[in-house]
Specification:
It comes from Candidatus Accumulibacter phosphatis. The protein is α+β, with helices and mostly antiparallel strands and 134 residues long. The chain is 38% helix and 19% strand. Strand 5, helix 2 and strand 6 (77-81) form a beta-alpha-beta unit. The longest helix has 15 residues, at 32-46.
């Protein structure tokens, strides 16, 4: 999500089968290391065993995090990848679309306003903000 010239708010997210939403947000560039750390925190938070379904973004399969992924696999993490070029199967992408185009008013935003809007939606997901995947 973009705010101000050149500033982009990044949100990594996992939709849990219980209906919960696990997220991490930051203004830095998304790297494989950040993604690997996110998976580690997700595994600690949700518990084991854990299966994560991913798209084919390069950070999800980067060589740099293969040792970490192997360690997380030993701790109970299983990764399954969606077929290439199938965003319609990615529930998180559907969530981002709804968030950007339905739940947030389309207007010019500065960084603090954008972050506050995102925080409000992430905090209210499941109660104030709901979606179905039928």
């Amino acid at each position: 999500m973009t705010a101000e010239r050149g500033k982009r708010l990044k949100v990594l997210a996992a939709l849990i089968s219980t209906g919960e939403f696990f997220t991490a947000k930051f203004w830095e560039t998304t790297t494989a290391a950040l993604f690997g750390g996110f998976l580690g925190l997700l595994l600690e938070s949700v518990g084991r065993p854990l299966t994560v379904i991913l798209d084919n973004a390069s950070i999800h399969q980067a060589k740099a995090i293969q040792p970490l992924l192997a360690l997380l696999k030993q701790k109970g993490l299983t990764l399954h990848f969606l077929p290439p070029d199938s965003p319609e199967l990615n529930r998180v992408e559907k969530l981002w679309h709804k968030m950007k185009y339905e739940w947030m008013a389309f207007k010019a935003r500065n960084a603090p306003t954008l972050e506050a809007n995102v925080d409000k939606i992430l905090g209210g997901f499941g109660s104030d903000y709901r979606m179905t995947f039928c």
